[in-house]
Design a protein that fits this description.
homodimer; 273 residues; alpha+beta; 6-stranded antiparallel sheet; 9 helices; 29% strand
């Protein structure tokens, strides 16, 4: 269910056909969970999109404008999901960015996602054939160039499969299509380095910080599918769902939801803004 | 100058903010030259976008609908440029393509590009720092994920530089930001293989075919910047400009417009639909 849609603060679902977000994917997005009328981790989402705007040379709108858009989009909704897109705005044909871009700010609210039984019992994942190209200039950002994820999600149709793991072109385990991935091995948390592909998820950052505050070692480095076999727990994170245990990676291992995953999922730092 | 804009055959510049072309770059585009009221190489453009639609699983609209859109967009314009975008249409949040997508067909006409003195005397190019990630699943298509090209074009501001050469992540010469590249060496035409990045340009295909018909050997393979030094001619191609000689790659070699380039640029097969 779509809630309200705003473009540059005005209630409309209409964007110009020469917007560079459409022409070239020249922009960024954030997906935010709304609980009890509040956008969870709003400041972190704003900080991430600002950091990416700086990298792409897109002027960052005032956080207050985004906040106001969210309030309007959320009228009457206590639980919801907010999608924010920022693009370099309209422009003539040609890749070169205009000197003074007029940023397009899009906010779309939709009904909150219903938790599924798999969220608690553990997700079933497949390993996608579609791989992630390497490019440090784009890595980490939640930009609008998402064809690799679209192709990866086209690979399966089985509703019992919740997510797909994605490997980099050189065979490293990087993420799932819309989540970051963590392994627990001998009490240490491992998550892939995203220096040349993958997204620096807000929930990934929160989980890393929270684990460290709680005294758990976190190693950010290169992982492969072989590392799944030696993991005692595997979980996915994203800002909408929080941490979710993985029960099975098809063709690889099975796990029960473990204590590290469950403690992180219940940690107030992870749950609250 | 923008001419007319159509979305799904209707004169409007408005696209829905949940269009997957905007959300994920989930679509394709073509840029076509219009000369004497006719879209040059229209059938080839349609064939290319259809082949890419098939790869992405996007239903291809009828060529007759695209043709009609072009006619409307071109009313009163004898020379122009047409940009066609096809997207997987609107959809809810989430990368997974809808089962029955309602394709969005966008046509925008704009004034024809004025040839510059450099088009005849030879272009000055820089070598871009931004590289192209490798992904065979996306290579060859003119899809809407173009942030690499946007970043590459942001690298320079000097109007005497006409284009930027782009290397792949592993250091091969692939293309320029909006053109394919050819070298002439000892009477043989060389152009980069685009198996894992780069676009299979319509004009690239025409030049390869034309050269072969005229008895010139064409080698499609791996090239590096070092190959520039041993080339007697270098030229760029795209559908709007046709073949254009390169006079200089900054920090590398210089050339005069050569006989192979000039003969191809003047060949009726290259010029006419």
């Amino acid at each position: 269910m779509i809630g309200r849609r705003l473009v540059n603060g005005v209630e409309t679902s209409s964007v110009a056909s020469d917007d560079r977000g459409l022409q070239y994917g020249d922009g960024l997005f954030e997906t935010m969970a709304v609980v009890d009328g509040e956008v969870r981790h709003f400041k972190r989402h704003v900080a991430r999109v600002k950091a990416s705007c700086d990298r792409l040379g897109i002027p960052m709108p005032a956080a207050s404008a985004i906040e106001r858009d969210c309030e309007v989009a959320l009228q009457g909704m206590a639980s919801a999901t907010i999608k924010l897109m920022l693009t370099r705005g309209p422009g003539p044909r040609g890749y070169r960015p205009p000197k003074d871009p007029s940023v397009t700010r899009i906010v779309i609210s939709s009904a909150a996602r219903n938790p599924s039984a798999a969220d608690e019992k553990g997700l079933v994942l497949r390993v996608c054939d579609t791989r992630l190209g390497l490019n440090p200039a784009l890595a980490g950002m939640k930009h609008l160039n998402r064809l690799e994820q679209v192709l990866a999600c086209s690979e399966w149709d089985d509703p019992t499969i919740s997510e797909g793991l994605m490997l980099s072109m050189d065979g490293r385990l990087v993420c799932a299509t819309a989540s970051n991935v963590f392994l627990v091995r001998d009490g240490v948390l491992h998550t892939p380095d995203i220096r040349d592909c993958g997204v620096a998820g807000v929930m990934r950052e929160i989980v890393i910080e929270t684990a460290r505050v709680e005294g758990t070692d976190v190693v950010i480095g290169d992982l492969t599918l072989a590392d799944l076999a030696s993991a005692q727990e595997v979980f996915l994170t994203n800002a909408v769902t929080g941490p979710r245990p993985v029960a099975q990676v098809l063709g690889h291992s099975r796990w029960e939801p473990g204590p590290v995953t469950l403690a992180l999922a219940a940690n107030p730092r992870v749950i609250r803004p």
